[in-house]
Amino acid sequence: MLQLPSLETLNMGAALPAISIAAWACILLLIDLWIPKDRKILTVYLAAGNLVFAFIANLLVFNQSGDSFMGMYVADQFSGVMNLIIIGTALLSIVLSFDYLKRVGIERGEYYVLVLFVTAGAMFMAAANDLILIFVALELLSIPLYVLSAFRAPDIRSEEAGMKYFLLGAFASAFLVFGGAMVYGATGTTNLNEIAASAGMIIASNSSTSLFLLLGAALLLVGLGFKVAAVPFHEWTPDVYEGAPTPVTAFMSVAAKLGGFGSLLRILVVGMSAVTMTAGEPAVWQNVVAILAGLTMIVGNIVALSQANIKRMLAYSSIANAGYILMAVAAAGSPGLANEATRGALVYMLAYMFTNMGAFAVVIAVERANGGADLEHFVGLGKARPMLAIMMVVFMMSLTGIPLTGGFIGKALVFATTLNAGLVWLAIIGVLTSVVSAYYYVRVIVNMFLRDAEASTEEATPGYSTGVQWVAAVALGGTVLLGVLPTLITVLTDRVSLVASITP
């Protein structure tokens, strides 16, 4: 007879932050039907209030360790830090979006509901301890993003962005499902801890089962590689980033990466940590991930050099930054370095969140005034809006990895971990591509301060909303504080331990 799990077994309190967001999104979708079109600000307040509640709830369970849904969801330090970053991203995105949606005539309450669903999906992905939950969470994250990308319909570029993202995302989901099926066929389980318990013996046996396990892991890497925009699964990124509404681009550039890397670290560090040919040697997937990291950094930074549209430039920058985080993932394959690499990745993702959200806030301000997002629209910005231009300078410096910015701290930790793992060649690629990236980031600064704008451009000075100002200011503060006082975040990450819980 089917035994229904008890409330104690489900332990939903440990997953309260993610559950509260998913549940409130369903409720808010109904509430929004009764909110008049001219008062959608109420939907904004209700969505933002729920995120604040989830943020507080996450702090309350931050130091608690446990699992929910019979071991499918893990509440630990890793998921706690990831939740803080994901919720912060969603809050900044909502504040950034309201004025933009109103200005371009697409102010609809379901936008904020979709943002909440994406947020919940990313949080479940970061805490998932089971391949089934990872897939469900991936779809909860992805499907709303497909809709958000096309939210500016009937604009042809927005519709194209949504369609491309949907079609390629469906293929990526298929790879993930097929990979999960092969891992299940090899190990007889979808639980990551149980996979870790049997993976080492399967590889050591050198039987045909080990081939299924490795092929399944490779397919899982393909599916999540698409979500984080790693080369060669990145082709969707520039077109989708350019065509989607700019607040959506800002949100997906961070939220999708957070969810994707959260699951990728869980799968490789927890589920596949024992996949080694010889005890004490690096995991067999380390070199594959390292090669992907190198290719991602090279392609992302080199192609960004030729971009004239800043949204496309930031798209390739996003690809390159995925490569830097993949460096930490590759380093996690070395014995004894999993936790150090995970902490470096967490700090990098927090720095990237502040930096990227701030950069897109400036893009929205310029876009609002000039009706475009080309690099030429930044010419003369230093004269027209010096404070806005100075903020953009800090964000570009952080993306480059200049000291006293969050980006520098993130790269320093990732590079150090990579060197400790013995991946010297990968660290060299990271340093050289960072130097290359300085060219296209500095080009934005040159346009703002060293080029004179035409009279028509000077007259169209940016007139940005209070929400955009707040997001830019918060992002600036986070970027600088993280660079000057990195202990503010390392205090939280120092206790992060992402290892398999294997019982004999």
How does this model look, in words?
It is a single chain. The protein is mainly alpha-helical. The protein has a domain at 284-495. The protein is 73% helix and 1% strand. It contains 21 helices and 2 strands. It has helices at residues 7-10, 16-31, 41-60, 77-104, 110-127, 131-149, 156-187, 192-205, 208-227, 237-243, 246-271, 286-304, 310-331, 338-370, 381-384, 386-400, 406-420, 424-449, 455-459, 466-484, 487-493, and strands at 66-68, 73-75. It has a two-stranded antiparallel sheet with strand order 1-2. A hairpin with a 4-residue loop joins strand 1 (66-68) and strand 2. It is globular, with a radius of gyration of 22 Å.
Write the layout of secondary structure elements.
Elements: H1 7-10, H2 16-31, H3 41-60, E1 66-68, E2 73-75, H4 77-104, H5 110-127, H6 131-149, H7 156-187, H8 192-205, H9 208-227, H10 237-243, H11 246-271, H12 286-304, H13 310-331, H14 338-370, H15 381-384, H16 386-400, H17 406-420, H18 424-449, H19 455-459, H20 466-484, H21 487-493
Helix pairs in contact: 2-3, 2-5, 3-4, 4-5, 4-11, 4-14, 4-20, 5-6, 5-11, 6-7, 6-11, 7-8, 7-9, 7-10, 8-9, 8-11, 9-11, 10-11, 10-13, 11-13, 11-14, 12-13, 12-18, 13-14, 13-17, 13-18, 14-16, 14-17, 14-20, 16-18, 16-20, 17-18, 17-20
Features:
1% strand; globular; mainly alpha; 73% helix; 504 residues; single chain; 21 helices
Major β-sheet profile: 2 strands, antiparallel
Largest beta sheet: strand ordering: 1-2
Report the end-to-end length measured between terminal Cα atoms: 28 Å
Q: Taking Cα atoms only, what radius of gyration do you get, to the nearest Å?
A: 22 Å
Written as H for each helix and E for each strand, in order along the chain, the element string is: HHHEEHHHHHHHHHHHHHHHHHH
Described by the principal axes of the CA atoms, the overall outline is globular
* Low-confidence blocks of residues: 455-462
